[in-house]
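Database export, one record per block. Field names are fixed; values are copied verbatim from the stored entry.
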Amino acid sequence: MRSSSNSSLGAFIKKWKYRYDVTLPLYVMTPIEQFVLNSFLFTCLVLLATAVYTYTPVQIQVVVRRAYYYYSGEDTFVCLDDDEVSSSSSAGVLSAGYI
């Protein structure tokens, strides 16, 4: 005997597939046209998901840093490591002609 969650999930998927088929003009297209349209939509969906997966953590870090700055007034962003700052700061000043 099937559980009610499996049948309700199946009914939910069938309903959304029906909506997808009726909303887009898939039911009047040839199988090749359906494949091309579905491939294009799938590619766009994959690219969107990749962009969200790639850039969301970076954007969350930016928002948290800004919120912390607005809250405390301290900047937590450091451009260079401590070793790079000590070695490059004097060379950069000398090469720029400030001394």
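Remark 1: DSSP finds three helices and no strands in the chain.
Remark 2: The first helix runs from residue 4 to 23.
End of record.
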